[in-house]
Amino acid sequence: MISTLPSYTEAMYFLDAQDLLVGVSDYCNYPSDAKKLPRFGTSFEISLEKLIKENVNTVLLAEVQGSRIKENLEKVGIKTIVIPYKKLADATAMFETINKNFNLDKDKQIKLFQSKMNSLLSPLKKKKKVLMVIDEKFKNSKLHELRAIGTGNYFNEIITRLGATNVVSSNGYPLLDLENLLKLKFDILIRVSDRKIENAKNWRSSIFKDKIYLYEKDYAVVLGPRTLNLIEDFREILK
Question: Is 0.90 topped by the overall pTM?
């Protein structure tokens, strides 16, 4: 079996089912043992020839709109298990799907994960207004525009359940120019990234330098077992 998303790979290790994996996606780098496994592409572009050559019989697949990968895999007799990965509840659902399909008997472990998540998501006393950002563009060291985190994703779910308010009410990840950005009233700006932020220096000298929090964690954009760490981090940031 192969995994086509870091979320699925981490889930397999969390459920002690890593021995079932014979390969992972090009972006699966955690835990460290996953780096040693063969790479088969991604949910967007997978090496069908390599799958057949390696006698892979099952693929954990992300749903990609307009993609024919699932259809192509099933044509050659490879089973696909499509698992959602965009909402907070999908973390537990992901574990349950894998647990059920491979008879792992990890119900207690999954319930414990859900219990810990619910506990960490208890509302904070301070009700902060938050702007979350995943990308930006600076021109001559001046902020020009940014890509905000709106609704319809687990970041928004996390801060909402913690009692904070997302000042961006649009669904998805809208692009905001400086003019529209200045109209927003927020207490804190969280720049979310899974790597070092190239514009960190610019942010620290920007007009938002007193409100910016640079959040750089490799698990920031990977829904799965380490989402508990993400929630714990956000609790601390929003206190």
Answer: yes
Residue identified by tokens 């001046």 is: 142
pLDDT reported for residue 70: 87
DSSP string, 56-98: --EEEE---TT--HHHHHHHTT-EEEE---SSTHHHHHHHHHH
Structure tokens at 135: 């990308």
Cβ atoms 114, 96 nearer than 8 A: no
Beta-strand ranges (E) seen in the chain are 2-3, 58-61, 79-82, 129-139, 142-148, 165-166, 175-177, 188-193, 212-216
Asked if the model's pLDDT at residue 66 lies above 60, the reply is no
Q: Which two tokens stand for residue 78?
A: 């490879």
First and final C-alpha spacing in the chain: 42
Token pair of 6 as six digits:
């870091």
